[in-house]
Amino acid sequence: MPATVVVGTQWGDEGKGKFTDLVAREMDLVVRYQGGHNAGHTLVVDGVTFALQLVPSGVLYEHTVPVIGNGVVVDPRVLLKEIDQLTAKGVDCTRLKVSGNAHLIMPYHQELDALHERHLGAGKLGTTKRGIGPAYADRAMRTGLRVQDLLDAKIFRQKLSVALGHHNQVLTKVFNRLPLDPDEIAEEYLGMCAPRVAPFIADTVGLVHEAMESGKQVLFEGAQAMFLDLDHGTYPFVTSSNPVSGGACVGAGVGPRDIGRVMGIAKAYVTRVGSGPFPTELFDDVGEHLVDVGHEYGTNTGRRRRTGWFDAVMLRQAARVNGLTEIALTKLDVLDSLDSLQVCVAYESGRDRYEYMPYHQSVIHDAKPIYEELPGWNTDISGITEPGNLPRAAADYVAFLESQIGVPIRLVGVGPGREQFFDRTA
């Protein structure tokens, strides 16, 4: 049975967690396919808030098997802490499966991540300093340690010796730091983490294919978003993996023909954390309003998000690259009290007009948004669960976005709660 992919279409923080959770109701497996604990998904269930970092959203449904795929980088300490927190809230995590081929985030990755970001100074990338990038770099250099290495102490120590032999040279000679002790790291990872992580380790590629072959429903969950993609994002202000829908094939071990539905998550305006271009960014009272009403602060870092008007240029590009079949629009209610709204329909740079994202970074940095203005609705829509009850101006705003993107907007979120949404196709 063809699988479903849920992917962010902007710069992250679109509210993927809520709609992934919604779609997960229908799923037998929910598979995270890339990223690490730099991605936070916040869900509100019966007034209880769940802030997930590594464990897939499907863990909140007893019938669903949550899976961490081979494309994810895993800090076992963070994973175990999250499992403990979920268990304390009454969530059964024994169903969780973790790919033995997923790479481990090591203490030296986090140390190097912070030092490298500090070294960049004014040119910093805005990394979360969680060790994600260095872990993916070691994977590419073929010096990484994998989750399965926790099951063999001899192999773990051998690989650790090779990796740390290089990284300690960098720490001591480049950054003038003390070297890290391989025995201390091995004791923490093998002595404390391995026994607890071992029961979760599995052949997740086989698990996913067996599920699909038996007709079960499988959902692939991406972290971060399209414009943080290593290849298709606003490089170098990107993450270190491929959040786009095609990343599910590599990060979970499936083929393109296995995917039949791609849901893109888009916020009714745009936000971004950290550095990088942002053509529709607002620096006025409206921008502050979006921050305050939308509670635009990072789930993991607490950093204030930059805010701006909806950008249809981005979404057209996201539709192309991801093969979107539908869109879920989030946080429409945050716009409730604005008198008028702007939607970026194109960019202008010099004499050129761009309907899709320019390929050249200089053009993106220089791009001036071309706006269409729409009226606001000045009505609280947070309680609306039927599309017919939406104020005319709000319905027109959603329809206008849909016409600009060229992809159906099916689901619309009107609040943080699990049930605060409506289906436009119902």
Question: What attributes does this structure have?
Answer:
single chain, 426 residues, 10-stranded mixed β-sheet, 12 helices, 20 strands, 33% helix
Topology:
Blueprint: E1 3-8, H1 16-24, E2 29-32, E3 41-45, E4 48-52, E5 65-68, E6 73-74, H2 76-88, E7 97-99, E8 103-104, H3 107-120, H4 132-141, H5 153-173, H6 182-197, E9 201-202, H7 204-213, E10 218-221, H8 247-252, E11 259-267, E12 270-272, H9 285-294, E13 306-308, E14 310-311, H10 312-322, E15 326-330, E16 340-349, E17 352-354, H11 361-366, E18 368-375, H12 392-405, E19 409-413, E20 421-423
Parallel strand pairs: 1-10, 1-11, 2-5, 2-10, 5-7, 6-8, 7-9, 11-15, 14-16, 15-19
Antiparallel strand pairs: 3-4, 12-13, 16-17, 16-18, 19-20
Brief rundown of the structure:
The protein is 33% helix and 21% strand. With 426 residues, the protein is an alpha/beta fold.
Widest beta sheet: strand line-up: 9-7-5-2-10-1-11-15-19-20
**Total number of β-strand segments?**
20
Shape: globular
Rg over CA atoms:
22 Å
